[in-house]
Design brief:
The chain has nine helices and 15 strands. By secondary structure, it is an alpha+beta fold. It is globular, with a radius of gyration of 21 Å. This is DUF7153 domain-containing protein.
Length: 336
């Protein structure tokens, strides 16, 4: 995909930074004596206007997302130098020759909250009934939490994904989209963390699980038309996801490392070799905002995933064979 003249690049222009610095928050939910690890979150708002460049000659035709018919990179302008894939020249705004058409689009001013849940385990395994169904109990609690957040109107969108494989490291992953103009993402984080502590309280459930919550930015996206800017919940029951999670130590998220994200995340492999029958819609890379170690989450959305599951899972053994990060197959359980 990189370096092709058939690709369209979308970029975003940064506006004045937000002066308010969010207070420390915690990524990890802990049920151990109420202690939590403190982290900081931060970020800048973005505003864009539309410009389009076609080769060496500026296009005179009105261009919009609705009229684009080619696969696109969508990268926030402040991340362009770090996440524009290695080997692809920087987009330019003058009349010089460029490999990419460039369209500046309005930024939705959204932040994504991701909640990773490990499999619940009984507090007293020896007393566990053979008829117990911890997976169903966890699914019910996670669905109730999603519904409560939806009713509170603090997030504009949300979805709960469930792993379709047995004994997955993360059987459930929740996504929430927060509009920065309407709600403070840090306050939403604190509220969700408190709600998670209450909903999954081991004293009432008699089960324990690890919960990892963090605020993420969508730092790069490969999108296939028709384009829908920003996060969008799936529209069909056949939609499925290939999700990969990576964690790197603090300071290892250098520019050279991030410019090669297509390779170490497996995004390039997914884009090139996923069968057309699965209906690839987008591949989005998320990067955590908290200080310290960084988490990257790659979400590959396919509109016909569940209709051709064997084809969709073709590349998963190869991704796992690299012994790098975690990869799982997911489908939608609940949305709002």
């Amino acid at each position: 995909m990189t370096g092709s003249s058939n690709n369209t690049g979308l970029r975003r222009r940064q506006s004045d930074s937000i002066p308010d610095t969010p207070p420390p928050t915690s990524r990890q939910v802990s049920f151990n004596k109420g202690q939590t690890k403190e982290n900081n979150f931060g970020g800048n708002s973005q505003v864009q206007k539309t410009n389009f460049f076609d080769g060496s000659v500026r296009s005179e035709q009105p261009i919009s997302l609705a009229t684009l018919d080619k696969d696109c990179f969508i990268i926030p302008v402040e991340n362009l130098e770090r996440f524009l894939p290695a080997g692809v020249p920087m987009p330019i705004s003058n009349m010089q020759i460029s490999q990419l058409n460039v369209l500046e689009i309005d930024n939705p001013k959204q932040c994504v909250m991701i909640h990773l849940m490990s499999l619940m385990e009984p507090i007293e395994p020896l007393l566990e009934s053979p008829l117990a169904k911890p997976f169903s109990k966890q699914k019910g609690a996670a669905s109730e939490l999603l519904a409560e957040i939806g009713q509170s109107k603090t997030a504009v969108e949300g979805m709960l994904l469930s792993n379709i494989e047995k004994n997955a490291e993360f059987p459930f992953i929740s996504f929430y989209v927060v509009n920065k103009n309407q709600h403070d993402p840090v306050e939403f984080f604190r509220s969700l963390r408190q709600s998670t502590l209450q909903k999954f309280d081991p004293k009432s459930l008699r089960y324990i699980a690890h919960h990892t919550l963090d605020l993420f930015n969508e730092v790069a996206t490969i999108a296939r038309p028709p384009l829908q800017p920003g996060f969008r919940r799936p529209q069909t029951k056949s939609t499925g996801f290939i999700i990969s999670v990576y964690k790197v130590f603090e300071g290892d998220d250098g520019e050279k490392f991030e410019k090669n994200w297509l390779y170490w995340t497996g995004a390039r492999m997914l884009y090139r070799y996923l069968p057309q029958s699965v209906g690839l819609r987008r591949i989005t890379l998320h990067k955590s905002l908290s200080s310290g170690d960084k988490i990257y989450l790659l979400l590959c959305e396919c509109s016909h995933f569940m209709e051709d599951l064997s084809a969709a899972a073709t590349l998963v053994p190869t991704l796992r064979g690299r012994l790098c990060g975690y990869t799982g197959l997911y489908r939608t359980t609940a949305t709002f």
